[in-house]
Design a protein that fits this description.
Rossmann fold; 8-stranded mixed beta sheet; 12% strand; 8 strands; alpha/beta
Length: 337
């Protein structure tokens, strides 16, 4: 058995259900690699757990069907104050509320993995955020730093001098190397801050910042498993999962966030369910259009998630539409080659 296990796949492949089974069989704990499940109060919308599961929520982790899952509810969604503009401006300039970057994930995953190893358990990373998995395997330099719209909106409120001071604090070497033209260009300063913030890591495995425990190493191979199926098969499963979440209060969950003054623009930027439901609740589109657009976006998202398979050369793919795939997978995990 490898020291660490990764399960990656598109939406509706049953990644978490499989990870829970393997965790019970091999004494493991899960680390969620999902860029949206880190946010609090989006349990239904981001599909954190099956509605049939027994869930216990604790500070810093959940226990789902007897298995500990790390990586849920790490960040509070950003809110705006009553006197802010109605478009969902954040509560104050420079606030990092609601921001969780790939470097934040790497730090969190590294520290959590050490804790799991120390407790003599198997770390199982599970999720559908491809660039999280890629960064975990190959380091943050292996992925392009994606634009962070929430951070950009906050930075756009700052003066050029304030932007440069912020960059100087995060990455003094980069700030010093900029010519006068770049120093006076707010767009270049904002992008430099964005990159610096995502890359600001202390030495560690794959560029991961972590608090090391003496005698514990994160060196070693991962067993990486990919779940897949023909597109139409996954579309059907995703549509059923969408209907199930709608029936269990997904619209009401987003409505509650809006009532708590969570930024509508942030919800829109988060995409998929949050985007289309918040637009419906804001009166911009009908409920029927919101659901139809959401369904189409989820199908497109599934196709994009599948493109990451090519970026993981050691991945072992299993087609969940075929019989006996789970038996073959469990043989691989028990006796990797």
């Amino acid at each position: 058995m490898k020291k660490r296990l990764i399960i990656y796949g598109p939406t509706a492949t049953g990644k978490t259900a499989l990870a829970l089974q393997l965790a019970r069989k091999f004494q493991g704990e899960l680390i969620s690699a999902d860029s949206r499940q880190v946010y609090q109060n989006l349990d239904i919308t981001t599909g954190k757990a099956s509605f049939k599961s027994k869930v216990e929520k604790h500070k810093g982790f959940w226990i789902v069907d007897g298995v500990k899952i790390h990586g849920f509810d790490l960040v509070e969604p950003p809110r705006y104050e009553p006197d802010s503009s109605p478009d969902g401006s954040l509560r104050e300039p420079g606030s990092e509320q609601g921001i969780f970057s790939v470097s934040d994930f790497l730090k969190f995953a590294s520290d959590t993995m050490i804790q799991i190893i120390v407790s003599k358990k198997l770390p199982i990373v599970v999720g559908g955020t491809g660039f999280y998995i890629k960064a975990l395997l190959d380091g943050i330099g292996s992925v392009g730093i994606p634009s962070d719209l929430t951070l950009r909106r906050e930075l756009e409120k700052l003066s050029i001098d304030h932007l440069y001071q912020k960059l100087e604090k995060i990455d003094p070497k980069r700030a010093k190397s900029m010519n006068e033209s770049d120093r006076q260009n707010p767009r270049r300063l904002i992008r430099a801050i964005e990159i610096a913030r995502a890359s600001y890591l202390t030495p560690g495995v794959s560029g991961v910042a972590s608090k090391r425990t003496p005698g514990v190493s994160l060196d070693g191979e991962y067993q990486i498993i990919g779940l897949t199926a023909p597109n139409n098969y996954l579309y059907s499963r995703a549509d059923k999962w969408l209907e199930e979440r709608l029936e269990h209060g997904m619209i009401e969950e987003v409505q509650t966030l809006l009532e708590k003054r969570v930024s509508p623009q942030w919800l829109d930027d988060l995409g998929l369910e949050c985007r289309w439901i918040s637009r419906y609740l804001s009166g911009k589109i009908s409920q029927r259009e919101a659901i139809n657009r959401l369904r189409g976006n989820v199908h497109s998202f599934i196709r994009r998630q599948k493109t990451w398979f090519k970026k993981f050369p050691k991945i072992r793919l299993f087609d969940i539409s075929k019989p006996n795939w789970q038996q073959e997978l469990k043989k691989l995990v028990s006796h990797p080659v």
